[in-house]
Write a structure and sequence with these properties.
Helix content: 25-40%
Largest sheet: 9 strands, mixed
Strand order of the largest sheet: 6-5-4-3-2-1-7-8-9
CATH superfamily: Aldolase class I
CATH topology: TIM Barrel
Distance between the termini: 58 Å
Number of helices: 13
Radius of gyration: 21 Å
Number of domains: 1
CATH class: Alpha Beta
Low-confidence stretches: none
Strand content: 5-15%
Number of strands: 9
Structural class: alpha/beta
Length: 384
């Protein structure tokens, strides 16, 4: 465990089913069906065990703060009363000496003003997934009858905004390269989210993302993001933080960043299933069925046991897990080789550059050039 970095964040699956059927979903539509064997809802006894494991791990490593993200499926299918019980059980067993930060990621359809108020009362923020205007959002984000999720998501966002405080956690949008990037940006920024991010669709070398040309020559995702970055840097919705852009800027400035999708820093995140299974990041399911499974459970294993697992070690090795072409690249400190699931290939496993390599290089290079230009223009000029 020479490379081990302690766990500081848990993604806790509190519901294993969903009321949407998004076409790009790694959970249900990329070949993994392990969710069918899991309990529909996390029970309170399991939540207590999770709390004990948090306290055990924090005591071991001397931590006094821990983040817990409630996920699904759709977490609100568990019901707000049960969610409060789950949070209470984790807090009780973790103990008063450990500060727990709770949040959830939801599709927003089940949020009402009453639920938003309850989330505020129990100190749990909620981020909402929405891909853009109705025509864009509904290309992928539909219910099990193929019907729109747009109006319900927008209603949920407005409920969170009315609740005030820190209840509204922000927006996540999966990039649709057929959508107009600035129209999408303007629409989402119009909700004044405290955080906004644009996510690359999950893909890898064995299941490439949608693009019209050879992945070594085409950069449709960078070409989609760059106009948003330029508009944002020129003051358009500048008060809305865009996580990926801010993260790239921080890395270029020599910082460490906080997103697991970029940089060489060791990943300190685990996922807990509704049956208590300790797993790697759940998006690994997009690589191949079962890629997230470690064979561990909070009933019998600690988080330190998970740190010794080869899949977790691989995500903590940084540059040592990357091929030579990445190690020699000027952008490696910023991109980190790309998001771990996006590096997978059937023949070589995860020791590859990202399937989005060319997009990342173009985006990071563009941001680097813009920051250098700003830095240069701000330098005092001497009088000849």
């Amino acid at each position: 465990m020479t490379h081990a970095v302690p766990v500081s964040t848990l993604v806790v699956k509190i519901a294993s089913r969903c009321n949407l059927n998004c076409s790009y979903c790694y959970e249900y539509n990329m070949g993994d069906s392990s969710w069918k064997m899991r309990p529909g809802i996390l029970d309170v006894d399991m939540a207590q065990l999770i709390g004990r494991r948090v306290r055990e791990h924090c005591d071991q490593w001397g931590h006094r703060r821990f983040s817990i993200s409630l996920h699904g499926g759709e977490p609100l299918l568990a019901g707000i009363s049960h969610i409060e019980q789950i949070m209470g059980a984790i807090r009780e067993k973790a103990g008063p000496a450990i500060a727990l930060d709770f949040g959830m990621q939801t599709n927003g359809l089940l949020i009402t003003d009453a639920i938003a108020a309850e989330l505020g009362r129990i100190a749990c923020s909620a981020g909402v997934s929405l891909d853009g205007v109705k025509s864009v959002n509904d290309r992928a984000r539909v219910n099990h009858r193929g019907r729109s999720s747009f109006e319900g998501a927008v209603r949920g966002i407005e409920c969170l905004r009315r609740a005030g405080g820190r209840v509204f956690g922000g927006l996540l949008a999966v990039i649709d390269i057929e959508a107009d990037p600035l129209e999408t940006f303007d629409f989402l920024a119009g909700f004044t989210p405290p955080s906004l991010d644009f996510l690359l669709p999950h893909g890898n070398w064995s299941r490439p993302p949608r693009r019209k040309e050879d992945p070594d020559r085409s950069t449709p995702y960078a070409d989609w993001l760059i106009p948003i970055y330029d508009a944002w840097m020129n003051g358009r919705h500048r008060k809305v933080p865009i996580r990926t852009f801010e993260e790239i800027i921080e890395h270029l400035a020599g910082g460490t960043g906080g997103l697991e999708t970029l940089g060489l820093q060791a990943v300190s995140l685990l996922t807990i299933g509704t049956d208590g299974a300790i797993e790697g990041v759940d998006t690994l399911k997009s690589a191949f069925p079962g890629a997230h499974e470690l064979g561990l459970n909070v009933l019998t294993h600690s988080f330190d046991d998970a740190l010794k697992h080869h899949m977790i070690e691989a995500r903590q090795l940084g540059i040592d897990m990357l091929p030579g072409e990445c190690a020699a690249c000027w952008a490696v400190d910023t991109c980190g080789g790309g998001y771990f699931p996006h590096r997978y290939a059937k023949t070589t496993g995860f020791r590859n550059r990202s399937v989005y390599c060319t997009d990342l290089l173009k985006l990071i290079g563009h941001i680097r050039k813009s920051i250098l230009a700003i830095t240069e223009s701000s330098r005092p000029r001497t009088i000849p």
